[in-house]
Amino acid sequence: MTLSVSLRSSAFAVVACLVVLVAASASSAAPLNDVSRLQSLREDARRDYGAILATLKSLDGASPSGATAEFVAAAWSRLAANADAAERVAQGLLSDQTDAATRSVVTEELSQIRRFHNLARQFLARNAPEVPLTTATSVAAAGSTTSAAAPSRAQPAIRGPRFTGQLRLQLGSSSFKGATESSQTAQDFGVTGRYRLSPLSSVSLDVGRKSTVKQSAYTLTRGRVGFDRTLSGGGTLNAFAGVAAYKDDVLERSKHNDMQFGGRVSYPLGQSARVLADGDFSARNYAVDGGNDYSGARLNGKIRLGSSAARIVDLGVSSRFQSSDISSLSFTRLAPHVNFRSGSGQQYFTARAEFENMSYAEDASSNDYSRIHGELAWVNRDARRSLAVVSKNYTNNTARSNIRFKGQLSKRTGRSSSRLAATFVYHTNADEGITNYLDVRSDIYANKSALFAESRLFGRAWMADGRAHRAEWSGALGFRVWKIKIGPSGGVKLNIDPNDFAFESDGNSWRAGGRVVGNFGIKRAVVALSARYEYTTAYRDVISIDRSTGLITRGALETRHPTTLAINGSVRVPVSRDFDVRVDVRQYDVNLDLDDTISINPISNRSQTQILAGLVYRIAR
What we know:
Elements: H1 7-24, H2 32-58, H3 66-95, H4 100-127, H5 136-142, E1 163-177, E2 181-198, E3 201-213, E4 217-230, E5 236-248, E6 256-268, E7 273-286, E8 294-308, E9 311-323, E10 331-344, E11 347-360, E12 369-379, E13 383-394, E14 402-413, E15 416-427, E16 437-447, E17 451-462, E18 469-481, E19 484-496, E20 509-522, E21 525-545, E22 552-560, E23 563-574, E24 579-591, E25 605-620
Antiparallel strand pairs: 1-2, 1-25, 2-3, 3-4, 4-5, 5-6, 6-7, 7-8, 8-9, 9-10, 10-11, 11-12, 12-13, 13-14, 14-15, 15-16, 16-17, 17-18, 18-19, 19-20, 20-21, 21-22, 21-23, 23-24, 24-25
């Protein structure tokens, strides 16, 4: 299965082959309306799962609160509703007298939606136990996308085979060129599955090994097992254990092993209370002496009070205890909180208060702080408004102490959404007044049947003279042609000196280009394609360095023109009831257009190529 092709020159050819393969498989049409609906649900499920994953990972182990918790809960509710709708759509398709190829596409789409749903549920159970897991059926029946405040309920038992899963085996080649050059045979092996022990309990398995090249060749081996059980009385129990080993062929200091195990329990205490608790232990050990080794435990507990979904009070505490020889990785975190919610369905009001204390080892004690967070939010079917005040006091470094005032307005209409947020940061130490600033963010996503548009704007205004303000914008506009989005894209980055602004000045840039994105199925093939090209005009001051003193002197302004080309392609074609052929291609080339007049030890070009081909075996027994 190893592909014997010239990596860099073949990436375009392989993507072209993917398109030809798709076209060749399109000899007969599927029930396009229902299949398209299923594919749309899968795309929505993927987006909501990605939003949950990215949001919780950005918290770096902390529990979501306030606006963040509401955002995650809404994403989970949409995902659950989409999974419920997909089951109904697929049932109708699979009961028709459709051809085997169409049935294969439907089965694949439904499998992906189930996968996103299960992964999100497991990730939330481990990392955000305070987010109630409303069932897909209850969400769909209510027609709600924000009914996340209902008490957690046990997931219904899944009908069908006792074991479902898949085996993935892919081989190919990968390479990287930058400051160094690396290439090696690429591998991606994996087994994922879930075995239903009984209608109330199941075990899961996720084992894999991946070898490829990013900036250097590396190998990642991982394994994880999980156990889920529905308890008598309406409780749930989840447990997991996992290990991982990372090896870098160039950077020996990056080689490390990870270990983690933990669990979660949710149990009702009568009609008006429920207790939730979760915890885990994790450790990382590096192969070299003096690495960033650490070990720690996370413990969270909460009691939810309320006789109905119309009024709920949460009282809880989250904590993390971590030790390491590195002072900045050795700390204790305690964060009690209280959350009140009034309302039901798609319209409600929430209030949250939280106190957090963070204490580091002695050598890093300048990072010690205490934080008080208060937030109010008003939510209805299509909009969310919130106001928050956060006071952060650094015990041993008062110059960093600050108060943040936050406001946010989010709206969602169908597949279109917008968000406007503002944050004012005031440093309570008068001598540090120059660091006070106002941040404003705006995100707009409009998706229509024939058109799409995206706009992301960020601005930072300093509340004192002597600092250049910042403004950044990026966006795209284009058409939908069948299942493909295509159109121009661009962006601008500006440092704005209010006393002497010039567009052509050091650090400013603008870029323009275009992109193509498509996720679709045609008869037997499931295809994902994306391509992006951008041409940038950037302005940088020429620099000269005194090698004896290290002093850097800036000179005349110079214009440079970096370019970026990125291509990703994936095609999956069933060859039998249980086997698929899969090909994945990744290629990017970045020409930074740097030389030693504007950079120290410049790297002018970076590129990466990866091609993998192999089989996927679907298991349902």
